[in-house]
């Protein structure tokens, strides 16, 4: 299902910086009329409002706070596109003493946060004709990396949930997109020690194209495309047909 972005209203979580900020900007460049820029501290999106005026609306949303997400869904009752971009990463291998604490933290944000957003906004999207829900996953959702083992586990769970959401939301004509970047030049990427990574605009532009083309899987950057080259056959034979037949 292809989606024409022209004149649409979108909401992006984690919109104050990095990939989220780039998605807001890419959406506006693609013809989206208004973007709710969601962040735990809505004042942090003021630079976007300064640049784009009333096309950007700051909104409070915390992925671990179901009440804040429900309130955001009430405020943003006109949305056609919801992008769950917000996420967290903790460094550590599976034998570290703090790995269980990391798992609790990352699963609360990266996994339960997706479910909270989907449950709150699915009725809104349905009421507005279906629209789209996009989830920022990672290449780490299909391959674990020991230095970020709990993060990868959380993204694998989020990817699995994204597949389930695609099937469940197809009934209300909602396009679901799963985005799988490799390392990207963001604050999170810097904290993880990545150097020479591509800019966040690569992810934002690929998401726009994915929505316009109606694709489920989006692997945006060079490393991600290498992963997709190996994974594509399996995904197209097993994951995508199984979901579409559901």
Automatic annotation (TrEMBL):
Domain of life: Bacteria
PROSITE patterns: ADH_SHORT
Database matches in InterPro entries: NAD(P)-bd_dom_sf (IPR036291), Sc_DH/Rdtase_CS (IPR020904), SDR_fam (IPR002347)
Pfam families the record matches: adh_short
Keyword Oxidoreductase (UniProt): yes
Keyword Transferase: no
Annotated keywords: Oxidoreductase
Gene Ontology molecular functions: oxidoreductase activity
PANTHER family: 5-KETO-D-GLUCONATE 5-REDUCTASE, ALCOHOL DEHYDROGENASE, PUTATIVE (AFU_ORTHOLOGUE AFUA_3G03445)-RELATED
Family statement: Belongs to the short-chain dehydrogenases/reductases (SDR) family.
Xref: NCBIfam families: PRK08264.1-6 (NF006120)
Protein name: NAD(P)-dependent dehydrogenase (Short-subunit alcohol dehydrogenase family)
Organism, as annotated: Algisphaera agarilytica
Origin organism lineage: Bacteria, Pseudomonadati, Planctomycetota, Phycisphaerae, Phycisphaerales
């Amino acid at each position: 299902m292809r989606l024409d972005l022209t004149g649409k209203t979108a909401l992006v979580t984690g919109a104050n910086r990095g990939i989220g900020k780039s998605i807001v900007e890419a959406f506006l460049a693609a013809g989206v009329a208004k973007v709710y820029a969601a962040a735990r501290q809505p004042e942090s999106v003021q630079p976007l409002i300064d640049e784009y005026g009333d096309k950007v609306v700051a909104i409070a949303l915390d992925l671990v706070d179901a009440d804040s997400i429900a309130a955001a869904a009430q405020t943003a009752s006109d949305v056609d596109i919801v992008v769950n971009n917000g996420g967290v990463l903790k460094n550590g291998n599976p034998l570290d003493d703090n790995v269980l604490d990391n798992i609790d933290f990352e699963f609360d944000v990266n996994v339960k946060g997706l479910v909270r957003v989907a449950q709150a906004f699915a009725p809104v999207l349905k009421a507005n004709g279906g629209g789209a829900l996009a989830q920022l996953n990672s290449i780490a959702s299909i391959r674990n990396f020991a230095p970020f083992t709990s993060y990868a586990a959380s993204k694998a769970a989020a990817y699995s949930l994204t597949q389930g959401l695609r099937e469940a939301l197809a009934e209300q004509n909602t396009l679901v997109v799963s985005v799988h970047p490799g390392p990207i030049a963001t604050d999170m990427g810097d904290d993880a020690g990545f150097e020479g990574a591509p800019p966040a605009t690569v992810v934002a532009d690929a998401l726009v194209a994915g929505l316009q083309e109606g694709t489920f899987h989006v692997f945006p950057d060079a490393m991600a495309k290498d992963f997709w080259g190996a994974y594509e056959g399996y995904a197209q034979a097993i994951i995508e047909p199984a979901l579409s037949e559901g």
